User: Fold these one by one.
Assistant:
Number 1:
Amino acid sequence: MARQPFVEFAGNKRLLWIAEEWIRYAPKLAEWAMERIVNRRDVWSQYTIKNDRISVVMLPIKERRKLGTDMVTITKLERHFSGRSPAHLIGLHSISDHATCKWFAIDIDLHDESVPNADEIIEANKAATFEWAGRLRDMGMDPLVLDSNGEGGFHIWVLLDDEYPLADVYRFCGLDQAAIGGILVCRESPRYSRQSVPSAPTTCPTHCGLRGVITLGRIIRGSIISILPTRTNGSTAAMRSRR
């Protein structure tokens, strides 16, 4: 027997109203995501439920990816935003098949909320998140700051006004050793340690594709959906954000 959606919200009018609003706007969100978020349609990550446990798989299976018979569609995106079941949620990969991306994300994580100094890590994460978001705003961008997990982790998302090459956005984020004036600054830089963040943030895109091998790139699971961007020999100063 199929599980009824939102049974955990029974008796909570506010949460039921929020769920209904997501369903109401899911068609428009799906169209927006297809234009602004989807880097490639031929592969995605899918949540699955087995024995009441949630896991993530990559689809289609490797042997069927080149057939082109199953793609990221408006229907899949609409189902994702409606959120009627964890099995409807998907994650989109960071890099297109021609090594470009439409946006980038920074993941400032709290890996273990049970550590004794978790409260200090949360405050450090928060301070670093807003400092980096402020730098982006100073550069004319429009970052989204999201609470990623309710436990002290944060995401910064920037939707770009166009597709940009992989290396350009990667270096713009500043985790490349060659980056000068990057937003985050490379891990070895003294400027990075000033943020007092105990673990290095993760960027989407990663270095994938910089050496001529186009890979899928990582996904970042979050409120918007999941993603990342970019390449070489370009001017990062020309990048602009747009919602």
Number 2:
Amino acid sequence: MDLEAQQVSEAESAREQLQDLQEQIADHRRAKQELEAELERQKQELQYTQEDLYRTKNTLQGRIRDREDEIQKLRNQLTNKTLSSSSQSELENRLHQLTETLIQKQTMLESLSTEKNSLVYQLERLEHQLKNLQGNSSSGSTINMAAVDSTEVGTRMRNVPVLFNDADTNVSGMYGKVRKAASTIDKFRYMSHFHSSFCPV
């Protein structure tokens, strides 16, 4: 009688362990789906940001060319000996201002390129983390769990695969990185719009 009670207890414990594992697997799948959806959204954000960067860069380059042409015209005028001293002073001031503006715009272009490279790197890192998460779902450690035999209860043991360990901690860490990258994208888009309106011609 005691043996039968022990076998029933072991069978119940095995069922509880199996249920826990199934719940963990379901949680893991939901977390992976959410991460994949977030990654897809961030890819779209990056694409929009790159398009904004391209337009802003072209606009700035066009303005730089206009400034360079104006600077060259002013230099040509400065070489004309018939200019009065007051006109020459104004032209020199204007030349100085245009030169400073040119330097600022070139600095903006370098900053935009740096931001783009940073975003691309973060996206590649997120894709790598997602691949690791998918790889962990196909392999893992195993635990021994009691099972109920078809003819007699609970004297045998079998292995049940554990698809992941500490899933909550790992997923939370990845979400933190995803959110951080998304925040960086938003900041970058703001900078792009700000640069496009900075120092208008």
